[in-house]
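Q: I'm writing a short explainer about PLAT domain-containing protein for a general audience and would like to include a description of its predicted shape. Could you first generate the structure from this sequence?
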Amino acid sequence: MLLRESAHTPYRYVLNQARVRPREQDDSPYVKELLVTQMEGLSTKISKKKAQALEKSHWVLSMSLGDQCSLLPKVTLCGEEGSAEMEILNTTPTDWIISYSLKNVELGLLRKVRVEVDQSQRLNVFPEEGDNPENHVFIKKMRLCDTANGAELRFPSANVELIQYSVYEFPAIWPDYPPIQNVLYDVNVNTGNCEFENDFKVHLNLFGEKGDIGYRLLSTDLLRPYNFEPDSQQSFEIEAVSIGEITTAEITVDSYESNFEWQCKEIVVTDIETSMFYIFNFSKTFTPENRRQNCSVSLLTDSL
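A: Of course. Here's the predicted structure. Afterward I'll give you a sentence or two in plain language.
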């Protein structure tokens, strides 16, 4: 006899032995016991023959925040077939809970949830007398549901604090797929000529075989832009869900100035987990007319 608690349980019990329990009294009923002899591991996937056709996903995210927050999180769902930003449903939290929605977008198997600070709007909160909302947001926990197909992902102890330019990624955990690990990337920037009057923001995005990391501000404290000096080297750390082998880097420069120049001679990205490094050489100087560039990874022989 085989026994499985549910289709989502990754094992089943095998009951190959039985015995009749002795009766306590002559008029007591006979009781037959089935004994567990072993446990077998099973997949929780449904066979293709039995699987029903999936409808277009309608994702709904509930996010529980800490008290006295003022910054509004921006949420992006990242899947095998692409990524899309969720729509905020209520900027005024109820019991410090806010909700997001995303529908009619095909993302494939969800890989991760990216959360950053929305730069265009803030939480609509009304502090009590004597309280001042702090310039941050603390995420306690999240629950993500596909209401069209019944899938559900929980992040019961997110416990992440975001400040002005923070970005954090949560790997999706599915029953039959091991989660992709968070890794640390060391980014070394070699600056050449640099002419500007006011600070400008440099955002870096990395693309690999498992998607991208999203635009990250190259800075040391995530509260203000970094001051790039001419003919210098700077090092930054970026934490993200692993994107596997990196293939492309993209840089965007934001500045209010009508005239500036920044020469990014070379970027070296090192995956601290695997010690693999990737070299990118940007051929053109960043100017108001050339604010965005992407570059494929250089072959080792090209960088020597």
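A: For your explainer, you could say: Residues 58-171 form a domain with the Lipoxygenase-1 fold (CATH 2.60.60.20).
Q: Perfect, that's easy to follow.
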